[in-house]
UniProtKB/TrEMBL annotation:
Residue stretches of biased makeup (Low complexity): 70-85
Name under which the protein is recorded: Large ribosomal subunit protein P1
UniProt GO BP: cytoplasmic translation; translational elongation
Keywords: Ribonucleoprotein, Ribosomal protein
């Protein structure tokens, strides 16, 4: 990550932490206040557009959740519906093992 991206990211986090709307002008103001001179205005514009209408704190809290809130009920419903999912996974694993063994025909990289 370049210094420009890093400085803009930190400025966006500061604004989000203070509960201030993230705009290109506010990002640029924070970056100038930190005496960082090599950030082109395109970075602040890109970050402002990407984060427009988004809750940055919520994004940070849900980094490892996968598909977000919509995927949680679906995954929970599938797991609670019965024992079909583990059987399908085992079946797929066996098929993959078969395919792998078929691919190995005794030829090495340097044969």
């Amino acid at each position: 990550m370049s210094n420009s991206e890093l400085a803009t990211s930190y400025a966006a986090l500061i604004l989000a932490d203070d509960g201030v709307d993230i705009t290109a002008d506010k990002l640029q103001t924070l970056i100038k206040a930190a005496n960082i001179t090599d950030v082109e205005p395109i970075w602040t514009s890109l970050f402002a557009k990407a984060l427009e209408g988004k809750d940055v704190k919520d994004l940070l809290l849900n980094v490892g959740s996968g598909g977000g809130a919509a995927a949680a009920p679906t995954a929970g419903g599938a797991a609670a519906s019965g024992g079909d999912a583990p059987a399908e996974e085992k079946k797929e694993e066996k098929e993959e093992e078969k395919e792998e063994s078929d691919d190995d025909m005794g030829f090495g990289l340097f044969d």
